[in-house]
Amino acid sequence: MRNNFPLDQERNMLITWASFKEGNWDAYTLIYNSYFKFLCNYGYKFTQDVNIIEDCVHDLFVKLWTNKNNLGNPASVKNYLFKALRHAIFRKTEVSDRFNSIENQDDDTYSFAFEVSFDQQIIAREEEKELQSKIKILLQDLPSRQQEIIYLRYYENLSYEEIADVMGITTSSAYKLFYKAIHNLQELFKISKFKMILILIIFLEFQIFF
After folding, report:
1. Same-domain check for residues 83 and 129
2. 50-66 vs 77-92: helix axis angle to the nearest 10?
3. pLDDT digit string (tens) for 44-86?
4. Which of 33, 64, 94 corresponds to the end of one domain?
């Protein structure tokens, strides 16, 4: 099962968000409990320092409560939190601010680890392990931004518009970056683009990487 919320749950969370903004502590706690694991899992793709990840997540929620009266109404609570955490981790790890202005070029001033997460699954079948290992190696050959966009598109099931918002790029750049990543994987795997996409969908569906 992919790491995304059903549409109805997303809508309910927007109601919860509105209640949180009015000072409802239970609503605030529900948002924290609902997204903490997802945020940590996403943060772990940028740094394996658990302390930094948890500090950033906790700092994010402290700021949310402190500034609740000034917050807007995001189209998606999840996307809002992902974007905020991403910026927080970059600041915490002192990654260059110029990263967010880069749209069309690959940038390796930060790392994005596809093979690790907080909720990594145990793979029982040897043939799955073998293919998992091969795909991991291929993914690690991609630039960090290409790894990240595949993660957001297939594992978090975000639209290109949502990905653009999270990564701080235009929707057009998100499309270009994604298809560049797929093309590079296709070349590395020596298979058709359709089969490459199908493999990613199947393996991310069963959380092979995470």
Report:
1. no
2. 120
3. 888 888 888 888 998 899 889 988 989 999 999 999 999 999 9
4. 94
